Every structure is written in structure tokens, then in C-alpha cells.
Amino acid sequence: MSKVIIIGAGGVGRVVAHKCAQAPKIFSEIVLASRTLKKCDAIAASVHAKTGQTIQTHAIDADDVEATTAFLEREKPNLVINVALPYQDLPLMDACLAAGVDYLDTANYEPPEEAKFEYKWQWAYRQRFKEAGRTALLGSGFDPGVTNVFCAYAQKHLFDSIESIDILDANAGDHGYPFATNFNPEINIREITQKGRYWKEGNWIEVDAMSVHRTYDFPVVGEQEAYLLYHEELESLSQNIRGLKQIRFWMTFSEKYLTHLKVLENVGMTSIQPIEVNGQKIQPIEFLKAVLPDPASLGPRTKGKTCIGCEITGIQAGKKKRVFIYNVCDHEASYREVGSQAISYTTGVPARIGAEMLLTGAWRKAGVWNMEEMDPDPFMEALNQYGLPWQVLELPPED
Ligand code: NDP
Question: What is the CATH code for 146-338+389-395?
Fold first, then answer.
């Protein structure tokens, strides 16, 4: 019996609320708190209609550490599930430490004024969480999150040594709009307009944004054009997977999406540098976010599937081996179940499973941890149970 506070009433927050409410034995009390109360209330109403469970709602500015600490002290939850934006990670970790509460998120901290994805800010809390006897679980979404657990599983069960990892994220869904992002547009565009980067034999190799691509034949969704990006799990996996020689991250994009993005970039709309308009300072990307479709509105329109997985090469029993561990998720099925498309679903379900791992003690240890530092087995089992079943495909080894 545990009480959780979910922070953030966006697409992912909706999935987490629904999935937690489906398991009242584990999540006996659920509070949803976010900046805009009416978004919390709308989610609470939908959860009640689907599951009969009541969840409490609150308005909160998670950037305000003092107010959030007081809120946590009053509510006394066992865990905070942070599915607000990456900017709220540090204030929420501070509030959790002050109030003595465990913490979980799905994306690493980013300073608002600089598109920089690094764990250094959150890893700097390791000692404080350890001393406080509290757990912070970082990146419990799909990528990062499930992809890290796939790698830990491969290390534990499928290989004697891992040589290379390619994380491949395909969204073959279609929402019918000429251009929209599947999750928070500001976070999404910041991520893909920065330089690409991958890790090889101890060095980071930088490439121009979207300049390296390949055609990859995914299970179920077929051939897709995948682009090399930097993604935050590369930083922790390159440190935590023993003997690793190379790790890269790839995401698929349609030509239509990339053309729109290029035009927006060329005219300066993706910039995070504030400009002055009619005496007011605004970030162009914030304005763009306001005119693009709200990702939460894509749910009822999106058809098709996602396929996200890790292609891993290495050695087992003296022989070369190559596998693809993956999940396929259907946009329409996700929408039917929880009222969100598959991008939010594939992030919210692992957040709910990560929460269960902490609340039941399966993964509870004091400190700040990335997902691959935990035992993958109970998490992998839970993926099959709670809506994200996975497969291991054996591929012919590369020469
Ligand atoms: P949304 O933009 O849909 O939702 C974010 C929510 O956070 C909104 O409800 C917003 O409030 C709220 N919020 C923003 N600032 C504050 C604040 N200061 N205090 C309280 N609440 C605040 O995003 P998503 O649901 O799509 O994404 C949620 C998180 O999941 C993001 O961090 C994203 O990076 C991460 N993510 C991780 C993935 C993974 O696989 N690991 C994949 C996809 C997303 P308001 O409604 O008022 O704007």
C-alpha cells in the first residue's frame, strides 16, 4: 500500500495516472499535481471513468522548491513520479531530499537556457540521496528507460561480452497533420536540432545534426530511415556496460517531418535565444510550441505502430552474436486503453513499472541510479505484464 504523487499532467502524466490506477493494490493512493489544475482534473475524470478509482489533484509550480517541499511534507507520499519537463528535475530532487521522499523521472535535467543533455547535474546528487537513505531512479521511460534495461538484460543473459549497441527508435505512426511532434515540441526539437554524437572506444564523436542516416528494416513496421542523434542514455550506458566498444542512437523521421523542421530552423523558429517582439521577450521555440498541435491532442488521430529496440553485438560461448531486443506498440490500442498515443504510452508504462520496482523494494537502494544499474529481470517481466511485451530476435552475426 503506497501513496504516489505524479507531477506533470501532460501526455505521459495521463498514462502514468491510468496505469497506476489500474493497480490499486500497489498504488493505493494517487495524487496528480501540475501547473494547470484543470488538466489534472480532466485526467482524474478520465481515470475515474475507466477504472472507478479516485485520484486527488493539485496545482503546483514544481520550480518552487519551498512550496513543493511543504506540499510533499503535507501529503507524505512514498514516491514522486516526475513526468513534468526536464527543467523540473533538479527542483524536484531538492524537494524530495528536503521532504524525505523517493524520486523517479523519465528524462535528464536540461538547463532551460541551453540545450544540453547531461547527467552531471543529477549525478551530483548521488551522495546526498545516499546519506538521506533515499532512492532517485533516473530515466524510467522507454528511451532512456526500457532501452537501458534491454542492455542490462542482454549483458546478464544473452552475452559473455557486449561489443556494440545501436538503439533504434521508429515511430511509424501517422497523425494526419503536416507537422506535429509526438511529445513536448520544445523538448523534442531541442533534442533533434543539436549536433549528433556517439561513443566509440572511450571518445565522443560529433557529427552535424541529422547528417548520418541509414535504412533499417524493423520488425513489424518494416524499412525506415533512421538518423543518428545524441541521446542521454548513451552517457550512462557507455559507462555501465562492461567492455562496450561503441554505442549509438538512431531515430526515424519522415521526409515530410524533416522538410518542415529544416524550414522552421532556417527561419529561426527553433531557436531558444530570446527575441523581442512588441516589447516582450520570447523564445522563438516557445512560440512555435504554442502554434503546433498539442501532443496530447494527437491521441485520437494517430494510427500505426512504434518499434523501439536495441541491436546488440558481442560474444557468447566464444561465438559472435547479434540480437535485436524490441517492443512494438500500437497507437490506437494505447489510445483505447488510456486515452494517449503510443509515444506517451511507451514512456508512461515504464514510469509506472519503475515506480512499482521502488515501492515493492525490488529496486530500492539509496543513491541516484540509472536503470541499467538495477537487476533487469523483474522489470522485464513487468513489461510483458503491463502492456509493453518484448521480443528477442536473433540476427546473423556481422563479419
Ligand atoms: P507535456 O508537455 O505534455 O507535459 C508536461 C507537463 O508538465 C504539463 O502538464 C506541464 O504543465 C507540466 N509542467 C511544466 N512545468 C511545470 C512546473 N514548473 N510545475 C508543474 N508542472 C509543470 O510533456 P510529456 O507528457 O510529453 O512529457 C513528460 C516528460 O516525459 C518530459 O520530461 C519528456 O522529456 C519525457 N519523455 C521521456 C521519454 C522517454 O522515453 N524517456 C519520451 C517522451 C517524453 P502545463 O500543462 O501547465 O503546461
Answer: 3.30.360.10
